Amino acid sequence: MMTDDTIGVGLAAFGMSGRVFHAPLLKNNPHFQIRRVMERTKNEAIKFLSGIPVSRSFEELLSDPSVQVILVNTPDSSHYDLAKKSLEAGKHVVVEKPFTQTSAQAEELIALAGRVRRVLTVFQNRRWDGDFLTIQKVLREGVLGRLVDYEAHWDRYRNFIQEGTWKERIDSGAGLLQNLGPHLIDQALLLFGLPEAVTAHLRVVRTGGSVSDWYQLRLHYPNVGVALSSSYLAREASPRFVLHGTLGSFVKHGIDPQEQALAAGGVLGSTGWGAETEASWGMLTAEGTSEKRKVETLPGNYMAFYDNLYDCIARGGEMAVKPEEAANVIRIIEAAQKSDAEGRTVPIPPQ
Question: Which of 27, 36, 80, 318 could bridge across to 105 with cysteines, CB 3.0–4.6 Å?
Answer without folding.
Answer: 80
